[in-house]
Amino acid sequence: MKLWWLTDSRRFATEKAAVEALAAADPWFEFARWAFVDGNLAALGVIMAHGVPYPVQLVYPDQFPDVPAWVEPQDREAKWSSHQYGAGGTL
């Protein structure tokens, strides 16, 4: 387990600032909080699309930045799109 957010505090600060700045600048994304999802650091928030709220989590794997972060529904059963990898899967 790498715990990149502990070992690379500069990168974590950059990621944190970027997510929070996006939420502050654009009304389509409302940032809620930082949390741990299945042991991975995640930014929780809501994407608004066509007046519909989609609660999402941006998950940063332990291997980040060698492995990219991904977006998935907070609800493990949610299936929103044919572009999604199964119910609750990445978008």
* Number of contiguous helices: 2
Strand order across the largest sheet = 1-2-3-4
Distance between the termini: 25 Å
Q: Averaged pLDDT, please?
A: 93
Query: How many distinct beta strands?
Result: 4
Indicate the proportion of strand residues: 35-45%
H and E string: HHEEEE
Rough outline: globular
The low-pLDDT segments are: none
Structural class: alpha+beta
Please state the CA-atom Rg, rounded to the nearest Å: 13 Å
What does the main sheet amount to?
4 strands, antiparallel
- Percent range for helical residues? 10-25%
Question: Could you give a short description of this structure?
Answer:
By secondary structure, this protein is α+β, with helices and mostly antiparallel strands. The chain has helices at residues 4-7, 9-25, and strands spanning 29-37, 40-49, 52-60, 70-73.
